[in-house]
Amino acid sequence: MSLVGRLEDLALSDIFQILSIGKKTGTLIISGTAGAAVIVFKNGLVVKAETTTIEGTIGHDLFQSGLIKESVLQMAQEVKKKLPAKSVAEILFDLGAVNKDILEKFSKKRIERTIYQLLLWQEGNFQFELEDLDIKDKINIEDAGWEVSKGISPEYLLMEGARVYDESAKQEILSHEELAGEAEESGWEADWAGQPVAERKDISALKSLTQELRFPNSISEITLLILRFASDIFQRGVLFMVSDDEIVGLGQFGLEIEGADEKIRETIIPLKNSAFLKKILDEAHSYKGNIEKDEGTEFMINELGGGWPMEGAVFPIVAEGKVAAMLYCDSLPEGEETGETEGLEIFISQAGLALEKSILQSKLKDMQKRIDN
User: Which structural domains are found in the chain, ordered by start?
Assistant: First the structure.
């Protein structure tokens, strides 16, 4: 399978979902005016990623962190000149300067930084080939880096990259506010001893993500936004697609189980096995409280791992007049009660409308293709 196109036509989230669901092994190369990047996949998981927008190599990262001396880095660079096929990381490992665990840790950080950079790109061309391509022959990247032994979920990388983007945006807003001056001593804030009322987490997330939801590139981007929002409030959650007689796992966050993404996509729960979930979906209203035990909910919680949550929340997502998806969340790892969720409920309502728009656009494209043919 060769996948070629433009980011303007197929979003990074869609590319990642195709490669993840298909458990593809190969090399994805992205190039544009912003720079170039290469991402290596194995069985649908990301094992290596580098971009021209990040200066230096893992060797420089190790030196800046104080884990190797400058003389060791220079030695590795000299060796690389004689062995260009080897990466600086591999040479440092062969020299015994660093162990595998450290290289794995720093490589994962570079992978995350690369994906974060790609989320900022508005345009570019991409190419995916089912083989381990020679990176130097394709793009001018200084070093091929280190391949992690245990791949990283593409969905996790997109969510974390988007979270970093949100935090950077918030910091930029705060910086602008600081330049404009400290909080005024007069007005309503003075009535509270100069201490502004802390904004609720769900409302803060609603403000930061609503703009992104206005112009989603795809259905998969909408689902990622829903999971991102929920991850700011809950410790873990699962998004299910809903049909007339069953729910099927689509995506997750926070699950501490082996192969979480793959396991969730293989999770199917017949609605006849859960009167509790069926009632919520039939009524199409959000629920927060005790999760009633029945065959379906016991199977679901068992698949998520851990014991029975103190409290949980279920959010039906309505599109085109019917429930198209369902979000289940809890905070089992911390054993906490669920917090305020009104902001999330508003966002999910908006997500349903965005989903309708995306579905309609997809139908119109299909109609246009049939007309053109």
Answer: 3-156 (no CATH), 205-371 (3.30.450.40)
Residue 256 CA to residue 259 CA, distance in Å, equals: 9
Which regions of the chain does DSSP assign to beta strands (E)? Answer: 3-6, 26-32, 35-42, 45-51, 125-129, 236-242, 246-253, 268-270, 287-289, 312-319, 322-330
List, for residues 87-137, the tens digit of each pLDDT value: 899 999 988 999 999 999 999 999 988 998 888 888 899 999 887 655 555
**CA atoms of 267 and 116, how far apart (whole Å):** 30
d(CA 171, CA 176): 9
Burial of 28 per CB tally in 10 Å (0-12, 13-18, 19+):
buried
Residue 298, CA distances (Å) to 249, 272, 295, 330 in order:
15, 13, 5, 14
DSSP conformation class of 43: T
